[in-house]
Amino acid sequence: MNSSALSDALLDLIQRQPNAEKAVTYLTEQADAYRKTPTQAIFYRVFTAMPRFVGKQVITVPPATADEIQNLRNGFTVEGWTLDRLARVWWLLHLSPDDQSAYISTLENLFKAAEMNELVALYSALPVLHYPEHWRFLATEAVRSNIGPVQEALMLHNPYPAEQLDEPAWNQLIMKAFFSDKAVEQITGFQERTNERLARIAIDYAQERRAAGRTIHPELWTLVKPFVTEGNRTELEALFGTHGTAGAPA
Predict the structure, then answer these.
(1) Deepest of 57, 92, 164, 166, by most Cβ within 10 A of its Cβ?
(2) Distance (Å, whole) CA 52 – CA 148
(3) Do residues 161 and 173 lie in contact, with contact meaning Cβ atoms separated by under 8 Å?
């Protein structure tokens, strides 16, 4: 990934937003100041203060810009973000990765001290951070979180979990998404990373819901279907109400 090119693309997107002149002036001034004096104090201050200077309006992403961002970082999307979220992720790209220890400690401190909207930006940025393997534990922490926007920042339209989480952590993320009523069809890698253990968990969950007289989410069948055999087909099709298709259960 070309971090410099991605940074330029995100700044260009910020410039395209309505009434963004003051925001762009603030961001470029802070970036210049940080380049001259790259201290943690400046880095933290700007990250924290971002909403006051750029605003929180929902951004508009032209199709060409969305394609450019995808080309620079496959699977990465900023659709539906607020301007402060976008600006914070842009700002994170200014942190030099040359000193791995300093890079990691600086970001870890941000995660530890962050409030909800800051965490949303940090988890949104995972696909574009350096040393991606280091952030796996923090990603599992977001799965365990009960803060909906933080969960969604990690779970939805985010390629990081599918690329980096091991099978148990991935399975936990998927089932937590069902338990917390997330839009599971928006999870990157949802179909591609289904596995036999996850299918068994999905079957158990479906059986529990059926026994309790509750509806069964149709996307649970997506997890189970690749592992249907002649021996269990009749039972599973009855459970999910599929009648041999991939349709929604009754």
Answers:
(1) 92
(2) 23
(3) yes
Tell me the whole-structure pTM to 2 decimals.
0.91
Residue type, 201: I
Q: Which residues of the chain have pLDDT under 70?
A: 242-250
Q: Residue type for 123, please?
A: Y
**Shortest CA distance to 216 belongs to which of 184, 193, 190?**
184
70 touches 13 (CB < 8 A): no
pLDDT in tens, 181-213: 999 999 999 999 999 999 999 999 999 999 999
Angle between helices 40-54 and 100-113 (to 10 degrees): 50
Four-residue CA torsion sign, 176, 178, 180, 184 = positive
d(CA 49, CA 176): 32
